[in-house]
């Protein structure tokens, strides 16, 4: 039973890679040298299930001078216009400018449904706003980013018809068919790289599960 459950879990991961390849990643280097972040109005357009990758300021150990550090917030439109972090909540903190090997990266997935009760959900046609406050000085310099969530993908349409709460707990006496249904009907699978849930196309998943049961 344990081996069968593991095999189905790995199969779900493999199946999801097909959909993951269709998502885009948008890189933003969050520092004062990025002129786009220093002016109001810069908008990044993303699709549902795309990723925003925020790269924090990074310096070699040998580099001297003040290292930029920021606290990033997701705020309301008013908070974006006035650069007021009190009109939102803290999202990330860029506080390791001398991190070894590479800059610290934070990722936001623009998903419609979150598998976590505290997860953030994004809606098509809406704008979302990020700002930062510096911690390396006490000035009022404001970096800001507006993100517009544009469109859905064909794969998302399958999941949107019947959004259900995921069920990933293996209960005692759970049969292999029940596990397959839980994996498919939850519409989610575990992406280890980002520790978030990624929607699966239900029809593709069902076909694979049916094939596995016939072996």
UniProtKB/TrEMBL annotation:
Pfam family, one: Ephrin
Residue span(s) of domain Ephrin RBD: 23-153
CC terms in the record's Gene Ontology section: plasma membrane; side of membrane
Example GO molecular function: ephrin receptor binding
GO biological process assignments: axon guidance; ephrin receptor signaling pathway
Gene3D superfamilies the UniProt entry points to: Cupredoxins - blue copper proteins
Entry superkingdom: Eukaryota
Record carries keyword Nucleus: no
Membrane topology: Lipid-anchor; GPI-anchor
Protein keywords: Cell membrane, Disulfide bond, Glycoprotein, GPI-anchor, Lipoprotein, Membrane, Signal
Assembly, per entry: Interacts with EPHA8; activates EPHA8.
Biological role stated in the UniProt entry: Cell surface GPI-bound ligand for Eph receptors, a family of receptor tyrosine kinases which are crucial for migration, repulsion and adhesion during neuronal, vascular and epithelial development. Binds promiscuously Eph receptors residing on adjacent cells, leading to contact-dependent bidirectional signaling into neighboring cells. The signaling pathway downstream of the receptor is referred to as forward signaling while the signaling pathway downstream of the ephrin ligand is referred to as reverse signaling.
Protein family per UniProt: Belongs to the ephrin family.
Name of this protein: Ephrin-A3
Protein species of origin: Ictalurus punctatus (Channel catfish)
Gene coding for it: efna3b
